[in-house]
Amino acid sequence: MTDLIFRVMPNWEPVEGSLSTPLGFRAAATAAGIKKTAGALDLALIVSDSPDTSAAGLFTTNRVVAAPVVFSRRSLQETQGRARVIVVNSGNANACTGRAGFRAAQAIARAAARLIGSPSGQVRVASTGVIGVPLNPDVIVDRLPALVQDLSSERAGAVARAIMTTDTFPKSCLLRAEPNGVPVHLAGVAKGSGMIHPRMATMLSFLTTDAAVAPRYLQKLLRAAVDLSFNRVTVDGDTSTNDTVFMLASGLSGQSIVPGSKGAAWFEAGLVELCQRLAKMIARDGEGAKKLIQVEVRGAARVVDADRIARAVANSPLVKTAIAGSDPNWGRILCAAGYSGAEFDASKVEILVNGFRLVRGGIDVGFDEAAARRELDRKELTVRLDLHQGKASAQMWTCDLTHD
Amino acid sequence: MTDLIFRVMPNWEPVEGSLSTPLGFRAAATAAGIKKTAGALDLALIVSDSPDTSAAGLFTTNRVVAAPVVFSRRSLQETQGRARVIVVNSGNANACTGRAGFRAAQAIARAAARLIGSPSGQVRVASTGVIGVPLNPDVIVDRLPALVQDLSSERAGAVARAIMTTDTFPKSCLLRAEPNGVPVHLAGVAKGSGMIHPRMATMLSFLTTDAAVAPRYLQKLLRAAVDLSFNRVTVDGDTSTNDTVFMLASGLSGQSIVPGSKGAAWFEAGLVELCQRLAKMIARDGEGAKKLIQVEVRGAARVVDADRIARAVANSPLVKTAIAGSDPNWGRILCAAGYSGAEFDASKVEILVNGFRLVRGGIDVGFDEAAARRELDRKELTVRLDLHQGKASAQMWTCDLTHD
What we know:
Two copies of one chain form a homodimer.
Chain A lengths: L1 E2 L9 E2 L10 E6 L12 E6 L5 E6 L7 H12 L6 E8 L5 H19 L6 E8 L6 H5 L2 H6 L8 H5 L8 E7 L6 E8 L12 E6 L5 H13 L16 E6 L5 E2 L5 H23 L7 E9 L2 H13 L1 H8 L5 H10 L10 E4 L2 E5 L2 E2 L4 H8 L3 E7 L5 E8 L5
Parallel strand pairs in A: 1-12, 6-7, 10-11, 13-17
Antiparallel strand pairs in A: 2-8, 3-4, 4-6, 5-11, 8-9, 9-10, 13-18, 14-15, 14-17, 15-16
Helix pairs in contact in A: 1-2, 6-7, 8-10
């Protein structure tokens, strides 16, 4: 292992590949018959071949948690962040299934551990799908031997499809950088249609890297990145029983990330970018959605105020339907800011769409409506509120809302 | 004035009439051309002929408040709860309209005061409609003389229609009781399609009574009744810039309501019933909504927990779409409870629809699905969660959510 020492900061570039492109990873997916649709992929396995793999995990804040979350959260603590295997199924959330549900999660993890030859504590499980229906573990356990046989670094693209439920497209991203001539990768898949009303669904994401990162530091980096990405596309508190993000770091690139170093800042930036790219895919994936909307709040006195306003505006169905119709109805934006619970002076607010000003000093600037509509017609647009009261800022991603 | 002394508690009965049926009230409505639709009623006047009329008012908690709210809130304080006149328009919210908007509200109140012969502080104004468009006060002021001419106790039914915006039906209610052989009335109109997504609109309600109630006590009673009714159909914080409830008490029935008396409890119960009837009409008035849903939470350790769960369940689009399809998907109900922020033990929860049990001890009881669907097919239904942890309870009203 060598610490990263840079002359210049190498860029993270999006490249073709999957979450098994980082060195040491293999994956496979299959149709196990958990989903009702015949032949639909619904079971996936992700494995790191490095015994020194670090693992981090973040889970739903919902008080009602699914069995796989209970199991995996416990494993994460017991193994102090060591894990090599992820088993994930769609079609059944294994939530609200009582003790039998926990035993099912346990049986799946044990079977996978036995087949791969790792301690069962090093297997994480995740599920998404219908709540309250018992999950028969045999359906999964019986398919595991074939899935292990099928593990490869090349065909892992199917994993992104196997975790889909209400998603309309698979969400996958691979970033690559070459510090000092040695490639390092950050990869991930995700599922979820985020806050896209009324199809709020479980958010799952699985991330891999071949950088070497100590488990506790990996956990810290993951939390920070998730706060700036996945937590910015879902409604406060609107977490499902199953929301889970797992990250595995194989270390096989030979590049080590040391806390506080210049390399750490570079790696963290890459991880944030990876998560934000996946989060934006979730935001974009709404039923009938046509536009990706970035909500930016600037000039707030406190971060909490910026954050509340960004969330309220991004979550407002009235704002989202206005943008769907390219209607420059800024009253709805200001109204959402007003009920957000944030402290601000409405008579100082400035509102812009892609830099085109609609409001200054809290009132209409008398803008050209046709020009405003052209800005709102774009496929990707930014709604900015400048409160002119301080220096705090926040952003959120969402999509427009149509009613077809 | 005589204090109410009862032998038996007289029932409040819903009867035919309007908000000018209580003694001392007259009202009128007209089409002033504020709404774009030609001939649509958009201006109304409510007047009490008693100089001793008490007035109470509650306003939006939105930080961005419309000019009529600023004006009326100030008047309420300055006059210490004395007012006789309400001028209300639909079609323009007079919100985010700067100083000109405040002057417009002022001009309307002054003109009405002059015509009726009351101090201008005794006029309350309210507006609902589009935000951010200047309201020309002359459009209203010019119509006031004819409106004053038209004031009557008989034709006031038009007021409920004149305050409608996205509402699909007028909302009006009159309750009558006869303590000691003397009739007392409680009447009201309301507008709003409440939390019915995505048409959350301004909530307005105007209430009248011919009971005699001192202004400060009237304010206290109104606040308590609104907390148990209108505040139970709108999303926490999803208040518009214009939400307003006004109540006028003429005292002309000769029946006086004395704080702490048995008559006070009886009057308060009537006021709560009036407000709940109007609130349910708002809950029922959703685009495409077919069912009125009452969410009841019982057995919570604390009221705050019961309240959070009731709100989260009632506001969950996933719950509302499931009920629209008569789908006994209790997982969505439990999931909403889980992200509500309430503290409870998921393994103790019982869930019932109209008394039909779906869940006990946090898991499916193995109910007959056809029977559950029959309960969910009803036009009015109750979803009950019993937490089995204490004695606190809360309820909310909402409607089902369809996507046509």
